[in-house]
Amino acid sequence: MAYLSGNVIGNLSGKLGNLSARTVNGQTIMAARPSSFNASQSPAVVEVRQKFAVTGTFAKNILTLSTLEEIWRKAKVAGISVFNTIFKTNFGYSSTEKPTEQNIITPEGFALPITTAAVEADKITASLPALNTASVFGANEVNLSANALICYYDPSDEADEPFKIISLSKEVTAFDFSQTYSLQIDYNVLQEAVAAKYQHSILYLIVASKSTDGKVVQNSATYTKLS
Questions:
Q1: CB-based contact 84:109 (threshold 8 Å)
Q2: HEC string of 85-109?
Q3: Which range is least confidently modeled, 10-19, 58-67, 135-144, 180-189?
Q4: Can you spell out the DSSP letters for 107-153?
Q5: Given CA atoms 129, 134, 140, 141 in this order, what sign does their dihedral have?
Q6: Which residue ranges does the chain devote to CATH 2.60.40?
Q7: Is the Cα dihedral 81, 82, 83, 88 positive or negative?
Q8: Across-strand partners of 206?
Q9: Interatomic CA distance for residues 11 and 38, integer angstroms
């Protein structure tokens, strides 16, 4: 490794032959690149790589829903990104092939008392009893946000990906937490196309209360269902 001071040739970054360069605090650092790299194919290492890929995909899909990102952002500790917080929490629950029913889309929360839920070809539905039986809601909690991930797996065509995840959300204003509620979130055309390719699914569903300015006040734990 070599350090170049001054700016005679300017700041460098990238590859140059068998050297790589990067600039840190105005100083260019040159280092030799390895001539070759062979990733270990031991079963234990391969298993970890596969679980990394599965968990990374799961975490990325969680972050596509702004309500879930807000919940995880409040739960993370300083110095760790939201993505890494989600990843670290879920890594132990993932399998090498797909997320499992143990994976979660919120870090904690009140138990979601769903009586029935279904994953259909073009929508998800769920029956929610009065949520004030599960938690205490203040006067500032006026809206409801429902958020879901559906992991589809066992493709009908082996050429398709082993699993695919779609993300859904619905905002309900002036929500009555003392009444039962029939939730329905419809798929778009692309999501319907994904659902048609797979034989089984895992539903991950949560609800969150929101204030008038759209901020999450509290949220449920993750409800899961295999179909």
A1: no
A2: HHHHHHHCCCCCCCCCCCCCCCCCC
A3: 10-19
A4: SS-B----SEEEE-SSEEEEEE--GGGTS---TT--EEEEEEEEEEE
A5: negative
A6: 97-226
A7: positive
A8: 147
A9: 31
The whole-model pTM stands at: 0.81
Encoded amino acid at 57, one letter = T
> Collapsing DSSP states into helix, strand and coil, what is residue 47?
helix
Class of domain 97-226: mainly beta
Q: Are 118 and 171 in contact (CB under 8 A)?
A: no
Q: How far apart are CA 144 and CA 182, in angstroms?
A: 13
The burial of 62, by beta-carbon neighbours within 10 Å (0-12 exposed, 13-18 middle, 19 or more buried), is given as buried
Task: Supply φ then ψ for residue 52, to 5 degrees.
Answer: -60, -45
3-state secondary structure at position 160: coil
Q: Would you tell me how many other CB atoms lie within 10 Å of the CB of residue 208?
A: 22
Q: What gap in Å lies between CA 197 and CA 180, rounded to an integer? A: 33
27 falls in which pLDDT band (50, 70, 90)?
low
Number of other CB atoms surrounding residue 36 within 10 Å? 5
- How far, in whole angstroms, is CA 9 from its chain's centroid? 44
